[in-house]
Design a protein that fits this description.
The longest helix is centred in the last third of the chain and has 20 residues. Strands 2-1-5-3-4 form a 5-stranded mixed beta sheet, with no helix packed on it. A 4-stranded parallel beta sheet has the order 7-6-8-9, with helices on both faces. The chain is an alpha/beta fold. The chain is built from 7 helices and 12 strands. The radius of gyration is 22 Å and the shape is elongated. It is 27% helix and 20% strand. Helix 2 packs across helix 5. The chain starts with a strand and ends with a helix. It has a domain of 74 residues: Roll (Ubiquitin-like (UB roll)).
Length: 251
């Protein structure tokens, strides 16, 4: 039986029992497991990790644990005052795209409202989500920690909260999205892009009061849904602006 010492930082502590959070603790092991296997055995998905220091030196996931190793594990996008490190994944994607699991329907609508390309279907299987993430370089968003432990998954994030508004705030901070928001450029129902249309083009599809009081309209390129700047639009816009201000305050 061998013994190593682990310390997890920042949001990685969300995966640990309370007695192991934000402190150094011992980990016993047999044989010669990789540091990745040890980290996931403790409940932390590998996709949440970006840097591992063993005895103050950066290592990759394949590093084999040795007796008395001291291991520090950091999350993605954490900042460090060190000269040379081994990051465990590619640089953050410039073109952020997501695929969400079945539990995140409301969050999906918020993300699309903010202009973020987000795939979602209620009948997606775990394997379909993984295949989409790989083929289209999408970040998996899920409430299922087990999904993120799949060896094929390289881009993913565990959604902590069950409340859609808090979920969106978490993502805006986590992926630094607040300056990438383009409100009402994407269909909230099907994820298609919106384009401006003249009132004349869709006049026969409008209800009398909508026809009377509104002049600017957008139409989805894919499903042909019509959008306009009604009270619902103004309310959502106001909520998103408040959310952006909150993320600026936190950051």
């Amino acid at each position: 039986m061998s013994l190593a010492y682990f310390r997890f930082y920042e949001e990685l502590n969300d995966f640990l029992p309370s007695e192991k959070r934000k402190k150094l603790f011992s980990y016993t092991f047999n044989g010669n497991p990789s540091v990745k296997d040890a980290i996931e055995a403790m409940g932390v998905p590998h996709v949440e990790v970006d840097l591992i220091l063993v005895n103050s030196l950066s290592v990759d996931f394949s590093y084999k644990l040795k007796n008395a190793d001291s291991v520090s594990v950091y999350p993605v996008f954490e900042s460090f005052d060190i000269a040379s490190v081994t990051h465990l994944r590619e640089k953050p994607l410039r073109d952020l795209k997501f695929v969400a699991d079945v539990h995140l329907g409301k969050l999906t609508k918020y993300l699309r409202l903010c202009g973020f390309d987000t795939y979602y279907r209620t009948d997606f299987s775990d394997q379909e989500i993984i295949n989409l993430a790989i083929s289209d370089k999408r970040i998996i968003l899920t409430r299922d920690i087990g999904l993120l432990k799949n060896k094929k998954v390289t881009l993913g994030y565990w959604i902590r909260s069950v409340h859609p508004y808090e979920q969106l705030k978490d993502l805006l901070l986590r992926f630094d999205l607040k300056n990438r928001i383009t409100l009402f450029t994407r269909c909230m129902e099907c994820n298609g892009l919106l384009k401006d249309v003249t009132k004349k083009e869709i006049l026969n599809r409008l209800l009398p009061k909508t026809r009377q009081y509104y002049r600017k309209f957008k139409k989805c390129n894919d499903c042909n849904r019509i959008y306009w700047n009604g009270s619902h639009y103004q309310s959502m816009k106001r909520h998103i602006k408040i959310l952006i201000l909150k993320t600026h305050t936190i950051s």
